[in-house]
Write a structure and sequence with these properties.
With 334 residues, the chain is an alpha+beta fold. 36% of the residues lie in helices and 24% in strands. The protein has an eight-stranded mixed beta sheet with strand order 6-5-4-1-8-10-11-12.
């Protein structure tokens, strides 16, 4: 590379170096899975009787070294709640002082209609739950606090990237009502619902991609009003599938790296267990470097611990202006 080009390349690398600390955490908030009315459809006969997928709180922290920070928590619940937020902030104050307050902590629900109810403080929201349900409330507060603690403990230098996509994953559940809007108003928009997705990707300087979250407008009503299984619905399922996919991909990548290391030892040869044993037996140990089973074990232990340090990928599918957006693109179902 030409010297001036190399200098420009180095300057770009310096400018683009991460100026943030990023931390991600996740924790279970499922709560009671039986004999509790579900929150969302306001159907007094919809009572939980099992679990489809467990619910989680997923936390993302972005901080300036020695500066400001922001905490965003996405919860697999119908909505966040004022009393839940107050109690979480009280616990954070007792643990971290004034580091996390109402000024930099945001808690958002995915609007699933398949989570346990009874955790809200206002009467209109708990009528069908026949009052306040302490188990639902405690599961939310405890899980949110734990997810924030994990994200706080995982803060490392990293970067944040933004991207946008247009996805055809929602339809207007009342298109005839939408047509009652003035023509001048409707002319401002290409569609009768918001089809834009905004995604933030978090990249750790050491481990690479460690998580992402996005906003997309669609109701959490893929599970019908007769469903009785606790579930994160479409957004909770999407988050679970993306996390599983990425972590499986990470494991496969690690296995491939190990296979490449073996192929580097035996250049141009077919990797055969018997041949490798004979090749290994032909090497003589170098003086001053003990080759023992204990050294081999310690290396394997260090390698395992090193792999264990790699954070699991955290993915959240957050809710935005879901208003009249239905996920049931093929029509409603009971």
């Amino acid at each position: 590379m030409h010297l001036k080009s190399l200098q420009r390349y180095k300057r770009k690398r310096t400018i683009s170096a991460s100026n943030y600390l990023v931390g991600l955490g996740s924790y279970d908030i499922t709560g009671p899975a039986a004999d509790v009315n579900m929150m969302g459809y306001a159907n007094s006969g919809q009572t939980a009787s099992g679990v489809h997928i467990r619910l989680r709180a997923r936390t993302f922290i972005v901080a300036e070294p020695q500066g400001n920070r922001v905490v965003f928590v996405n919860i697999d619940a119908c909505m966040a709640e004022q009393l839940v937020t107050i109690k979480v902030l009280e616990r954070l104050k007792a643990r971290y002082g004034d580091l996390y307050t109402e000024k930099n902590v945001a808690i958002s629900g995915i609007h699933t209609h398949a989570g346990p109810g009874g955790y809200l403080q206002y009467v209109v929201y708990i009528v069908t739950s026949l009052g306040f349900v302490r188990q639902s409330f405690d599961a939310l507060v405890d899980g949110i606090e734990q997810s924030i603690m994990r994200a706080h403990e995982n803060l490392h230098p990293g970067s944040v990237y933004v991207n946008k996509e247009i996805l055809d994953a929602g339809v207007n559940r009342s298109p005839s009502a939408y047509l009652n809007n003035p023509a001048a108003e409707r002319a401002k928009y290409k569609y009768d619902v918001d089809k834009e997705m905004t995604l933030l990707k978090f990249v750790d300087d050491q481990w690479g991609p460690v998580g992402s979250f996005n906003w997309f407008a669609t109701h959490g009503t893929s599970m019908s009003r007769t469903n009785e299984l606790i579930s994160g619905d479409n957004k909770g399922t999407a988050a679970r599938l993306m996390e599983d996919w990425f972590n499986q991909k990470k494991d496969a990548r690690t296995a491939n790296e190990n296979r490449r290391r073996v192929s580097n030892i035996v250049q141009g040869a077919q990797v055969n267990h018997h041949e490798l044993l004979e090749l290994a037996a032909s090497f003589e140990s170098v003086s001053g470097k003990p080759v023992t089973k204990y050294l081999s074990i310690s290396r394997r232990v260090r390698s395992s611990l090193r792999t264990a340090e790699r954070p699991s990928f955290v993915s959240a599918f957050c809710q935005s202006n879901c208003g009249d957006v239905s996920p049931n693109v093929l029509g409603a179902k009971l």
